[in-house]
Amino acid sequence: MQNEQEDKQFTxxxxxxxxxxxxxxxxxxxxxxxxxKTIDRSQGHLCILNAGLSEDNYKRVIKxxxxxxxxxxxxxxxxxxxxxxxxxxxxxxxxxxxxxxxCSCAVIREWGIESEARQAVSKGxxxxxxxxx
Length: 133
What we know:
This protein is of the alpha/beta class.
């Protein structure tokens, strides 16, 4: 686990930019059911999973499908952070989140526009199949 943390070459903010760009081109699957369907159809490029997922069976299914289809997994610490990242939040007029819906899993189907953040994430996931943020 220590080597995996040293290997990561991108931050949560860069991942947030990549997810936002993916969402703009309708290339983001959110929730377990939609993510499982996307990975099973070999359409997923990157899986973002909540590290503290309470149901171990869900985690096993996602990990097995990702291993079968060679989809890298990025773990985030909180389902609230993941929910905010994938756009499941109402925003106040000043831009801060007012109500965040929890999210357990998200899969990127389409990368969206080319950016420095995408290059950093692509470089990071090419080095390792599981990354903990």
